[in-house]
Task: structure prediction
Amino acid sequence: MDIIQAIIIGLIQGLTEFLPVSSSAHLLFAQYFFGITEPNLTFDVVLHFGTIIAVIVYFWRDIIQMIISFFLSLIDLVNGKFLTEVRKDPYKKLTWLVIIGIIPVAVVGYVLNDFIESLFVGISIPAFFLLVTGCILYFSQRMNSGEIDLNNMTWKDTLIVGCGQACALLPGLSRSGTTIATGLFLGLDKEFAAKFSFILSIPVILGATAYQLTDVTTSNIDVLPWIFGFVAAAIAGYLAISFLLKLIKERSLDIFAYYCWIVGAIILVGSLVFGL
Result:
């Protein structure tokens, strides 16, 4: 992989990780376009680190408060004040909502890992699920923005959003799109649904990256494309988060639904015609 390819794939990873158009589908499409039949796992890990940096930098104040709140909650647990303090302190509540929210994806990822990996072959399956992503986004935008935010979000709401995130392990289902849409169907305020989706992605991306690290090799590598790919993914990811949070505040996400339908249909028809 040369530097130009690394930058392009890094931009695709950064943008599509947070925009509701499925990063897994677009990376598979890019690999076929560039003729990459054996993706470099180490480079994939580097790109994920780039997107992690993007979301951490964007929400760094919230993340620091959540880390502090986590340890304070452990002290509250010892003192028998855990539930009381979680109800009173918004950051303590957010911290434990995120912890609860990642349970479904952790369970599904562990139990169905081999099956899910088997779907990352060819481009017809991700193209089909990209069409599904478009439908999810379209119908979620027909819902009125609810009034549920951090103050009145329940553990049940969080688990359901987490289940939506678990479904997005399938190639072509957008993680951000599915979690935001699930939140809207539940009646979450759309700005809070988007923010919660991004924060919920942090432990998931970290966990997936840590899992991939077990198979990483650093022999016979050209580090320069990695660096450019990492920087491209980080910058694109940061811009994607900023753009989507502004867009969802002012307009609908219908444009992404149309995009998913158009790209998904073109790729699916092409894959069926040419047997990809």
About this structure: The mean pLDDT is 89. The two ends are 22 Å apart (CA to CA).
